[in-house]
Design goal:
mainly alpha
Length: 83
C-alpha cells in the first residue's frame, strides 16, 4: 500500500510504479531472496511469460488488499514480524 500511495521517496514514486501483477510467497526469507535473484537474471520476455501465465490481463492484484485493511491478519506481509 505504501507503493500505491507513493508514501516513500524512491524508485516506485519517481516512476509511478504502483501496480502489483505478480508475487510469490515463501516461508523462509532465504528462499525468497534466492528466487528474486533467479528472476532478476531472466530476460524480460521470460518475466512477462511468468506474469501472464498467472495474470494474463495484468490486473492489479493489490487492489483486494485495500478491501482487507480492516482485517490486518489477512493482508500479506513483506517484512517478517510486522503486524
Amino acid at each position: 500500500m505504501e507503493h500505491k500511495r507513493a508514501v516513500l521517496q524512491g524508485f516506485t514514486q519517481k516512476y509511478r510504479i504502483n501496480r502489483l501483477v505478480y508475487f510469490e510467497s515463501f516461508l523462509y526469507v532465504r528462499d525468497a531472496i534466492a528466487r528474486e535473484k533467479q528472476i532478476k537474471g531472466w530476460r524480460r520476455s521470460t518475466k512477462v511469460a511468468l506474469i501472464e501465465a498467472r495474470n494474463p490481463t495484468w490486473a492489479d492484484i493489490s487492489e483486494v488488499w485495500g478491501l482487507l485493511e480492516g482485517k490486518k491478519e489477512q493482508i500479506p506481509r513483506l517484512k517478517s514480524g510486522s503486524g
